[in-house]
């Protein structure tokens, strides 16, 4: 986002979120002390395409006397820290407000005015309670929520007063580790001296810190034929493999995070053992044959057979 216009010096704009704030205190006296002080701004939004496209709009900010606006009774604290796995419906805080206007136009209702990423929060329009919504908080989406809440009167046009709440979110172990592949198909030559690296399995975990740190283990190691580096996920042979004895192995790798409760994932590794010319041909029996003397050249004598593993 980009902000411009004749009154741009009086405001600031977050280029990422689009939030506009006053750069300094705004006063009615700036324009002669009347009740119709107006600031005109131009807003431009530009996308991130290869050939960026943009759109613009005009923003008119009208300044009204302070005494006409609803008065929010600020809670004891406006900064909160919650775990991302906090239950839906949890009340974070409760606001109260009143309007200086009399009668029906002075009725105040509450709403969330901005910063509610992913609709993680909701606000009771009548009671002023700010609650965790059904979707809940998500540390991976937003470790901090800067939420603007408003108290709005019932006049026409309605006037509103806003208050910012800061909600810091701590990580919970709510994401299991995920293997990059559910099935690996490595191949290795037989009779190679150990340890020979067969394959590296890899997993990721969307959580942070210890909740996102993963280690590996073999829950099926091919009867001791293989071992695994618990930190890197590298699988090695423990001895020389013999294709003539076992031509393939099915291993099971388990990945574990370090959170509480611990979460896991699994993957299958199918190891194919490739043949090497490590066995000479063998005759299966002794051969004996009688041949008539004076046999013609090219006369059939015998067919011998052998086998090779």
Secondary-structure topology with pairs:
Blueprint: E1 2-4, E2 11-13, E3 20-22, E4 37-46, E5 54-63, E6 71-73, E7 79-83, E8 91-94, E9 96-98, E10 109-114, E11 121-123, E12 129-132, E13 144-152, E14 160-170, E15 178-179, E16 183-184, E17 187-189, E18 197-200, E19 203-204, E20 214-220, E21 226-228, E22 234-237, E23 248-257, E24 264-274, E25 282-283, E26 306-307
Parallel strand pairs: 7-14, 16-24, 17-24
Antiparallel strand pairs: 1-4, 2-3, 4-5, 6-9, 8-12, 10-13, 11-12, 13-14, 15-19, 18-22, 20-23, 21-22, 23-24, 25-26
- The rounded distance between the terminal residues' Cα atoms is 72 Å
- How many DSSP-defined strands? 26
CATH superfamily caption of the largest domain = Cadherins
Sheet bearing the most strands, described? 5 strands, mixed
Q: What's the CATH architecture name of the largest domain?
A: Sandwich
Task: Give a written overview of the molecule.
One of its GO terms (cellular component) is plasma membrane. It is found in: Membrane. This protein is an all-beta fold and 309 residues long. It has 3 domains: 1-63, no CATH class; 65-171, Cadherins (Immunoglobulin-like, Sandwich), CATH 2.60.40; 178-274, Sandwich (Immunoglobulin-like), CATH 2.60.40.60. It has no helices and 26 strands. Strand 21 (226-228) and strand 22 (234-237) form a beta hairpin. It starts with a strand and ends with a strand.
